[in-house]
Specification:
Layout (H helix, E strand, L loop, with lengths): L8 E3 L3 E3 L3 E7 H4 L15 E8 L9 E8 L3 E2 L2 E2 L14 E7 L2 E6 L5 E6 L4 E4 L4 E6 L5 E8 L6 H6 L5 E5 L2 E5 L1
Antiparallel strand pairs: 1-2, 3-4, 4-5, 5-13, 6-7, 8-11, 8-13, 9-10, 9-12, 14-15
Length: 181
């Protein structure tokens, strides 16, 4: 019997390592529209978040992707850093988020626009229904790192969130988290 080494490695400090890994970086200049206001004091090249992922090249139902989303501890005119947020194109596809580091919120929104959050801290596991839009929000003072597992045919429907945006915004003011609806 031959014992082979996996082509994938998840280093808890350095992230994913694989020739098949893809990395996407979202800088402030590309994320300005996510926030309530523009912060002219923030360098446009500031890294807001990155996503490392291992995606199955064969888009086949039942195949899975594995990724790490890392949100930096940045605020935009007091608003907590967040991902763009999306529905899945294939609403039958669920997703799991597992918080590995940091603290924050998983904001969820159903198809009628009702919104709620789940608190994220190391070890929390979050099951995301395929019919719920979702976004990550870093409310802490260190990077929020979340491991994600999703069907490779789930897709991302950003246009639907742009047409019906999340109705709640999260701010950090004087060290306290505040909501604006």
């Amino acid at each position: 019997m031959e014992i082979k080494r996996s082509p994938f490695f998840h280093d808890w400090e350095a992230g994913l390592k694989s020739e098949q890994m893809e990395t996407s970086i979202k800088r402030y200049r590309d994320a300005k529209t996510f926030y309530k206001s523009v912060d002219e004091t923030l360098d446009p090249d500031t890294i807001m978040y990155s996503v490392q992922c291992l995606t199955d090249p064969d888009v086949v139902g039942g195949h899975l992707n594995w990724g790490i989303s890392k949100l930096e501890p940045v605020t935009v005119d007091g608003e907590c850093n967040m991902t763009r947020g999306h529905f899945h194109s294939n609403l039958d596809c669920q997703e799991y988020y597992w918080c590995a580091k940091g603290s924050g919120l998983l904001m969820l929104m159903d198809e009628t626009g009702t919104c709620w959050c789940e608190a994220m801290e190391p070890g929390t596991l979050h099951k995301i229904d395929g019919h719920h839009a979702h976004r990550l929000i870093n409310t802490g003072d260190e990077a929020l790192e979340v491991i994600c597992v999703w069907n490779n045919d789930a897709g991302h429907d950003y246009a639907r969130v742009e047409a019906m945006p999340f109705p709640v915004r999260v701010f950090k003011r004087d060290g306290k988290i505040e909501w604006e609806e």
